Amino acid sequence: MRTPKTLATSLLSLSAAALLALSAAGAASAAPAPGKAPTETSTVSSQAVVDTGGAEYWTAERMRNAIPGDVLAERANQRSANPKAALNRAAEAGTPTTVEAQAPRLQAKGARTKVKASESPVKHIGKVFFSLGGANYVCSGNSVSSANKSTVATAGHCVNEGPGAFATKFTFVPAYLDGSAPYGMWTANALYAPTQWTSGGDMTYDTGFAVMDPLNGESLADVVGASGLEFNAERGLDYKAFGYPAAPPFNGESLKSCSGTATDDPYNPDFNTQGIPCNMTGGSSGGPWFIGSSATGYQNSINSYGYGSNSTTMYGPYWGSVVQETYITAAES
């Protein structure tokens, strides 16, 4: 059974007319992004970001009008050249591994604003803005611990069409609130995703990483901190997920969260994903899943997709050895 729609992604349930409408509204092109050609290792694809002026490009109006990134995962699944990709997947078995968090070195320069929302802003969680195929999109992301102190984790469909071009003008706004950027707007210099995503749009590997340029001479993790990560963890853990849902009934202007115990996807078990109780919508794509009950836990997945226009479950990819290799490649770049 494949009938998903909306939430962090929408998969395979759009009518032909709706798909045509989405294409007319700015479907992403499968042509390579301008600049250097993507590079690949056995399981990692990357793209150097050569466009400039990303932060200046994202005016308040463009941020407000950006399209929730869930439509990109829908298109990726439609374009997938091998719907039986599970038969060719690399083994996910690996040794459980944790990466410790990094504390911010600098004191916050912006005032924190109290909000009437599900969650107050979290310094290392933010909104992701990017362009693909001439259209502007919005997702969510999180600063994660890394050797370069400049790595953001998000969904694969928020960095690459899957299969197809990498994003341009990729910009991370930590602790976003009502159009404000209290810790600045950070532009990416390189994007990374598993080759299984960039070459086939395989939802099993819907995870991406972006390496950000310094801002005012400082690294991202030194300003906002960075979450620890865990790979090859046991299944069925308790999680708290965060994101900036922008599709109705939400408006994307403040941080939301969901909590619950993860269970396997009963509709597409070949995705190897897990779901938690959650009603976040498009725009929350790429938001972090933390093991435990707060944003101080290890990140272990991201918001990826849901089923149905009123879905109450959010699914995220299992972070096994393939995602771990992608992370290591980005974190050490």
Automatic annotation (TrEMBL):
InterPro entries associated with the record: Glutamyl_endopeptidase (IPR050966), Peptidase_S1_PA (IPR009003), Peptidase_S1_PA_chymotrypsin (IPR043504)
Keywords: Signal
Gene3D superfamilies per the UniProt record, alphabetical: Trypsin-like serine proteases
Signal peptide start-end: 1-30
Domain of life (superkingdom): Bacteria
Protein's UniProt name: V8-like Glu-specific endopeptidase
Provenance organism: Arthrobacter ginsengisoli
